[in-house]
């Protein structure tokens, strides 16, 4: 707002542009303060800029000291290349940088910084001192950014940046800062991102004189485990896909490691942490089939691509990027994550044992006996060797094995039983015949044990769990969750093929209905039809169910119809078939999955196991719960302290 006393007395006509003063260039300090408004939002932004500079300087050791959430003081000491004494004043100059020299270099920039304005911006809103020494110098030199005064100082090779009293000269800004704990939290967020991206760098953090974090240099997996915690460490899938110059790698958390908030989602593009809608969407879409709508996947993913293919100069804070070919990047990331999740399906015993069994608490009294989490298949996560390890014990070879033996096994006919149980006689998307038809009778179990990944049923526990023996040991299956998963995939395939088999009802089932339900029946006729439902409005308060999807003919039809109408109302007809398909399929599958407390015969249990083997992602139900655990003989031995 212009100061009224400075406004010229002569008023112009109302509404016309009013020029109160002559045009003049802004003073340097003010320009930097304006720039600081974008770059230096809070102490955490200072930490981010200083850390990026230290990494650009080749540091391998970072000591971060914060006081009062970083508002009072931030000190970052690195062991990077240092700044020559003569260049110290230049480092503080606006638009002065050692990182790029030309537009061509900007377009291929490989350093984290390049704008040459961070130090100038910070120095314009805080007290700042740089102490630095290069390997050519006998001692360090210190510069006071406020006065520009240089003085010799003690110090080893590297740079120590000290920032005090952030916003001391811009009180309006300072008022926007939050509590000490909140600002500290933001600083730690920034530090964690750097720590994830650079496990090869040792980092320690002190706050108000107390050590809060310390990470030694380590391999990527150890660093990820330290930062995301044990749950993530024991429930993630390594990922490493390359296509020409593109690479996506890192760790994708299993649904069991999902969270109520999106607070464990780390995406790095060429080593830079970014928050990018396109990438977030691609990952989210890949999880769609295994994760319930209100859960957030956890992941640490890296995308590497040629610098020319991505523009990092979109925002001064460089947290947003723009891809030259965003569509193919989206597809690449989506498929890489989706494949990793699908590959996990009922497959790798290591993954499941390490992931789920590891969460069981040891009951032994000695410290030695515990379910140590086995390394995941292809545990070298960054640049991992998962593809190679596939030839070992993982699911692909398992399935190949069972495929080879199928023709040679005398085959019982559990199909009728299976149909009776799951009502899938008319199922359009029947799995390959070898899977459902080849469950051998009990006498054959021992010979065939290693041909079937999930082994053969031993019995049932409390009508909830199926126990089976396979080559590795004991398999425990949550019947309801597993069946839900199978139905979900069957529906999905049938829907994709527009081949939902319809079961007309000889005697229509009528039910009372709310006005909104009546409305949905009338408006969403096409969608209901596509799903295999034929519902008719009988009166303003009742409807008749005349046909249902064959897969669901044995469900409680009234509550099924209600649930489907509720989904259609909540998400809208066209969306339940597209982006909300996941929710709808979940509703349908859940409604007909075999309930707990249902007695199954051994043949029925085996049919379920075979069906699981052919279902993609069979080891997570669509609510993100695991559907089966593998307890290996080794796990059992450890439990009983055998051989110790
Ligand atoms: N920790 C550091 N170690 C060595 N050089 C540094 C360090 N921090 C800053 N510099 C030097 O100061 C220059 C200016 O830093 P900055 O204002 O952050 O701009 P930018 O990082 O975009 O180049 C950098 O280009 C670099 O040469
Ligand atoms: Mg910088």
TrEMBL record:
Keywords: DNA damage, DNA repair. Pfam families: DNA_mis_repair (PF01119), HATPase_c_3 (PF13589), MutL_C (PF08676). Signal peptide: none annotated. InterPro entries: DNA_mismatch_repair_CS, DNA_mismatch_repair_MutL, DNA_mismatch_S5_2-like, HATPase_C_sf, MutL/Mlh/PMS, MutL/Mlh/Pms-like, MutL_C, MutL_C_dimsub. It comes from Caballeronia choica. Residues 457-600 form the MutL C-terminal dimerisation domain. One of its GO terms (cellular component) is mismatch repair complex. PANTHER family: DNA MISMATCH REPAIR PROTEIN MLH, PMS, MUTL, DNA MISMATCH REPAIR PROTEIN MLH1. GO terms for molecular function: ATP binding; ATP hydrolysis activity; ATP-dependent DNA damage sensor activity; mismatched DNA binding. Belongs to the DNA mismatch repair MutL/HexB family. CDD domains: HATPase_MutL-MLH-PMS-like, MutL_Trans_MutL. This protein is involved in the repair of mismatches in DNA. It is required for dam-dependent methyl-directed DNA mismatch repair. May act as a 'molecular matchmaker', a protein that promotes the formation of a stable complex between two or more DNA-binding proteins in an ATP-dependent manner without itself being part of a final effector complex. One of its GO terms (biological process) is mismatch repair. This is DNA mismatch repair protein MutL. The keyword DNA repair applies. Residues 224-342 form the DNA mismatch repair protein S5 domain. The gene is mutL.
């Amino acid at each position: 707002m212009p100061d009224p006393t400075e406004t010229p007395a002569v008023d112009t006509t109302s509404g016309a542009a009013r020029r109160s003063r002559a045009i003049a260039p802004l003073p340097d300090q003010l320009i930097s303060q304006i720039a600081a408004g974008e770059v230096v939002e809070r102490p955490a932004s200072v930490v981010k800029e200083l850390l990026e500079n230290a990494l650009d300087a080749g540091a391998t050791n970072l000591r971060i000291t914060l006081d009062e959430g970083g508002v009072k003081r931030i000190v970052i000491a690195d062991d990077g290349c240092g700044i020559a004494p003569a260049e110290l004043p230049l480092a503080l100059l606006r638009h002065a940088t050692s990182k790029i020299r030309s537009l061509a270099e900007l377009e291929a920039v490989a350093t984290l910084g390049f704008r040459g304005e961070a130090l100038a911006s910070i120095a314009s809103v805080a007290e700042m001192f740089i102490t630095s020494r290069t390997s050519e110098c006998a001692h360090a030199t210190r510069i006071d950014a406020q006065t520009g005064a240089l003085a010799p100082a003690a110090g080893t090779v590297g740079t120590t940046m000290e920032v005090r009293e952030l916003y001391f000269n811009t009180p309006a800004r300072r008022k926007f800062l939050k509590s000490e704990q909140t600002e500290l939290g933001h600083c730690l967020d920034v530090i964690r991102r750097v720590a994830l991206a650079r496990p090869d760098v040792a980092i320690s953090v002190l706050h108000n004189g107390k050590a809060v974090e310390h990470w030694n240099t380590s391999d990527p997996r150890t660093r990820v485990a330290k930062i995301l915690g044990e749950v993530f460490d024991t429930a993630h899938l390594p990922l490493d896909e390359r296509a020409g110059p593109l690479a996506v790698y890192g760790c994708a958390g299993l649904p069991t490691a999902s969270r109520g908030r999106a607070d464990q989602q780390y995406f790095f593009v060429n080593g830079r942490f970014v928050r990018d809608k396109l990438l977030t969407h691609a990952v989210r879409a890949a999880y769609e089939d295994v994760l319930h709508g209100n859960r957030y996947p956890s992941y640490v993913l890296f995308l590497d691509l040629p610098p020319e293919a991505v523009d990092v100069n979109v925002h001064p804070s460089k947290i947003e990027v723009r891809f030259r070919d965003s569509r193919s990047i989206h597809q690449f990331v989506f498929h890489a994550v989706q494949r990793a999740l699908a590959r996990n399906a009922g497959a790798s015993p290591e993954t499941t044992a390490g992931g789920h069994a590891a969460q069981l608490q040891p009951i032994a009294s000695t410290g030695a006996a515990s379910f140590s989490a086995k390394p995941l298949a292809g545990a070298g996560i960054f640049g991992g060797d998962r593809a190679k390890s596939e030839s070992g014990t993982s699911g692909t070879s398992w399935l190949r094995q069972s495929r080879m033996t199928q023709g040679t096994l005398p085959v019982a006919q559990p199909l009728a039983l299976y149909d009776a149980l799951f009502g899938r006689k008319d199922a359009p998307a029947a799995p390959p015949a070898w899977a459902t038809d080849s469950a051998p009778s009990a006498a054959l179990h021992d010979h065939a044990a290693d041909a079937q990944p999930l082994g053969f049923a031993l019995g049932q526990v409390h009508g909830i769990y199926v126990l089976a023996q396979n080559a590795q040991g004991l398999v425990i299956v949550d019947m309801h969750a597993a069946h839900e998963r199978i139905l979900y995939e069957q529906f999905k395939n049938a829907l994709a093929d527009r081949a939902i088999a319809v079961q007309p009802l000889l005697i229509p089932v009528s039910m009372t209905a709310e006005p909104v339900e009546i409305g949905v029946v009338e408006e969403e006729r096409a969608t209901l039809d596509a799903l295999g439902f034929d519902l008719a409005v009988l009166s303003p308060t009742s409807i008749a169910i005349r046909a249902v999807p064959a897969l669901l003919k044995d469900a409680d039809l009234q509550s099924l119809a209600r649930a489907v109408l509720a989904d259609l109302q909540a998400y809208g007809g066209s969306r339940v078939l597209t982006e909300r398909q996941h929710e709808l399929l979940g509703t349908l599958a859940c409604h007909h999955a075999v309930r707990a407390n249902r007695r199954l015969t051994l043949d029925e249990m085996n049919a379920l196991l075979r069906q699981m083997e052919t279902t993609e992602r069979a080891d997570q139900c669509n609510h993100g719960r695991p559907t089966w655990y593998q307890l290996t003989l080794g796990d059992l031995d450890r439990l009983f302290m055998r051989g110790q």
